Inverse folding.
């Protein structure tokens, strides 16, 4: 089966995005109490729900990242990741509006505070995930669901 | 297209549910402590254990001890927060060594201080590790009387202790 360069590019972008979220989730799972502390610092959730968020979100990142990288239910994973990032972007903007200077708990490779850097990073990830989703949806219209064949003849 | 979108959403909901359920089971002690309202003391306990392992040999002081050292006027305070937070408000006459300059900035900024100078390092709040990181770095540079105040500037400010915007 011949795979076009655009499809290969699509898969590479998906694997990289999936890998980033898998890594981010893994870091949080390995340090659950540090992540819970970061969630608590946002002061958006009641303390009784901080544990649920701190326990669930990292595994959501891992599951979506892993499935996306492995090519399983790619569009659903992209939808999940886009929703996750969009939600987090709103949380960051609310936190900035409230004037809180806290660690964002979102830095992939280094600690980062809530601010424009985190907003930009999230905006890029959102465009990345939503764009790939849209691309996948258009391709499936042409080629059928789950196809990795080129869209053209 | 709408059918495809709905299917995607349904699978996304399934993955979400499965991941969250797995997470709740895997981190059950954390979830239970949070649900029972015992999260803050549990976090403090875990934080203290981690710091004891990660920053062995760094002495710490509490708010009252830090203020006593400030009142005596012998100790030099070092603010480990980012520059914009330092410029907003800080302990009077403190030096700012922000996190992104921890490696290169410490030696340069404390060049004029005697090695046996009493130094107190602080950061923003009780959960931040920057004070410990800078204190560890200072010890490595040969300073012998370094302590980290772990309550953070927030607790200092809330206690009504002196603070200013001067550099």
């Amino acid at each position: 089966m011949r795979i076009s360069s655009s499809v290969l590019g699509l898969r590479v972008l998906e694997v990289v995005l999936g890998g980033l979220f898998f890594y981010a989730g893994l870091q949080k799972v390995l340090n659950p109490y540090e992540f819970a502390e970061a969630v608590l610092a946002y002061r958006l959730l009641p303390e009784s729900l901080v544990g649920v968020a701190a326990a669930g979100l990292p595994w959501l990142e891992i599951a979506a990242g892993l499935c996306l990288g492995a090519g399983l239910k790619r569009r659903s994973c992209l939808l999940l990741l886009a929703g996750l990032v969009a939600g987090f972007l709103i949380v960051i903007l609310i936190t900035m509006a409230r004037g809180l200077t806290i660690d964002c708990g979102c830095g992939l490779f280094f600690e980062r505070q809530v601010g424009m850097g985190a907003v930009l990073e999230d905006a890029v990830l959102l465009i990345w995930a939503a764009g790939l989703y849209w691309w996948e949806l258009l391709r499936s219209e042409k080629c059928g669901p789950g196809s990795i064949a080129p869209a053209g003849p | 297209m709408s059918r495809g979108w709905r299917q995607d959403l349904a699978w996304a909901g399934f993955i979400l549910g499965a991941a969250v359920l797995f997470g709740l089971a895997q981190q059950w002690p954390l979830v239970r402590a949070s649900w029972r309202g015992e999260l803050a003391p549990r976090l403090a306990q875990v934080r203290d254990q981690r710091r004891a392992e990660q920053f062995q040999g760094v002495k710490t002081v509490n708010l009252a001890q830090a203020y006593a050292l400030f009142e005596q006027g012998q100790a030099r305070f070092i603010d480990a927060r980012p520059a914009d937070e330092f410029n907003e408000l800080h302990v009077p006459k403190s030096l700012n060594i922000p996190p992104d300059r921890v490696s290169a900035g410490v030696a340069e900024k404390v060049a004029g201080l005697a090695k046996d100078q009493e130094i107190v390092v602080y950061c923003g709040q009780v959960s931040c590790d920057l004070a410990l990181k800078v204190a560890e770095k200072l010890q490595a540079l040969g300073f012998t009387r370094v302590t980290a105040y772990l309550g953070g500037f927030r607790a200092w400010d809330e206690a009504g202790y002196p603070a200013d915007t001067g550099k």
In short: Residues 2-37 of chain B form one domain. Chain B has a mean pLDDT of 88. DSSP finds eight helices and five strands in chain B. Helices of chain B lie at 2-26, 28-35, 39-54, 63-72, 83-88, 102-109, 130-140, 152-158.
